[in-house]
Write a structure and sequence with these properties.
The chain is 56% helix and 15% strand. It is built from 23 helices and 18 strands. Strand 4 and strand 5 form a beta hairpin.
Amino acid sequence: MINWSLSTELLSLIIIIMTALFCYDKKQIKTRRDRLFDLILLMSALSILLNTVCVFTIEHYADVPHGLNMVLNSVYFLISSSTCTAFAAYLFDLLLEHVYDKHCRTKALVGLSILTVIFTLLVLLNCQNGLLFYFNEQGVYCRGPLNKAGYMLLIIELGMIGMCYHRNRASIGRSVRRVMYMLPPVALLLAFFQLSFSGLLLNGTIMAFAALIIFVNFQNLQVGQDSLTGIGNRKSFFEELSLRLKGGQKFQILLVSLCGFAAVNQQFGYRKGDEFLYHIAKWLEEVHPSGRAFRFSNVTFALICPYEDDDSARKLLHQLKERFDDIWQIGDIRYGLSACFGLMTCNQQTLEATQIMEMLTMMMEFAKQKEQKEIEYDKDIELMFRKKKWLEELLLDSVEKKRFEVWYQPIFNCKTQQFDAAEALIRLRDYEGHLISPADFIPLAEENGMIEEIGWFVWEEVCRFLGTHSELPLQAVSINMSMQQFMNQHLSEKISDCLERNHLSPSQIKMEITERVVSYDMKYMKQQMEHFAEEGLVFCVDDFGTGYSNLSNVMHLPFACVKLDRSLFEKFTQHSKDRMVVRSMIELFHSMNLQVVAEGIETRQQQELLHAMGVDYIQGFYYAKPMPEADMLEFMTKPL
């Protein structure tokens, strides 16, 4: 009689239980693969327990009915083979994750089903002919001629997995490849030990090692899983895109970006806000049987599904829109969530994963800027994307080679009747020499973190210009300052160095700051501005009168002047209420000992009204357009 050791089985059971505990998360959104892995753990634990019971009943054959021994061992053979098949099904699901062609998946499932049926019939027949095992007249457990059929089943299934891997390797990710190089050799090695040393029980060990390898690589998705919602994060979304593109799959991407979600957090608290995001993610994960949901960014979700045709894609988009037209209920809270939607079909693979990620981001930004409910990828969107990429490359090259130009727009002093100030404006040309609108490249430079380098280029050019042409009647030149420049730890040293090298006094530079920059960090900005004001630098509020206007900022920060935005003067000459507002502003700021600059003035009527109201400076096309340095020199030296 064989003497079996149960120590390896009990250790394997502990590993299985610990793995199951690590997998448990009541808030996790269970996918088909998650449920399959839970089944694998359950079957593995059951197999080990049955094996332990069978060893006990075999060793105490005289005290256990023969029929019970036969049933227990038969069930053990079935559970063990079924667990092996469940592992194979899990690996097939991994291998075919990014393959929408159903033929390979169907063949794999049919093959596994046939093997399961054959082995089940073999177990049933064993009760009559003892092909797998039997008990002799003395009650000793004996192995039948086909006792190793379970290992043959394992080898056949591993061969099927190997064929599937070879056929679809273009669509297989790095982590799956790592498991394919690791798991089959480990399983075969342990199976060899089991066959070589009959006293060892390593079936449970094989299951425990396989489950542990799968858990570490796929089920423990801390890196690829969004911690709040349980769905894939941006990193796993990128990997999903890459593999689907490499495999030549046809798929569609649907984006759902929540609008005004901050109101949910403010009204119900952040915990309830998180619950809304969790329920949205859970719904998206289940909305399409072959779809997979991801948290693309903070309040933007992405859904990847197989592409069938345009009608099916738009039908799914309509389904998403309909759901968000309805009410979301979290506990006793009922709330309507507003969202904008994007649709992109990938059936020609002309773009790379990185480009798709960038294009999706651009699409949703564009939709929100234009207040569009829905946006679909088309040739116009691609043209915008190509233009943006071209402009990014141009900006990078221009920053590196200092291709920018600084132009100047003279500012008229209404009291002295002279042009004794100017604003420095950045300009950029393409490679053919055509000017590019600052409205196009400035936001892009801010987005890509290049605005600081451009800002310092302007500083250097302005200081050089003033230092070289001290004969000009310019008392100050205004320079626009970005938040990135103020966050620079060496800001004070850079400014001092630039002024000293060009023999300039701080009062010759006027720093224009928008209230958007100020409101970014009021406490920090106040400290910085007070420090520079003590050094003699002058600060001016830029674009006052836009959506960020806040009198409190003007009152409590060391500004010396306020520049009224051009939007205040668009209907200035036609409407008395507009004139009344401007007049009140000028009087208010004068009472606060602040100078007032009116920008964007283009007509004589605007100029005369502002003169009468007592504005200090006027800037605009009526007096002069922005001009290159050479033209500025000529302009400033000719008589009025």
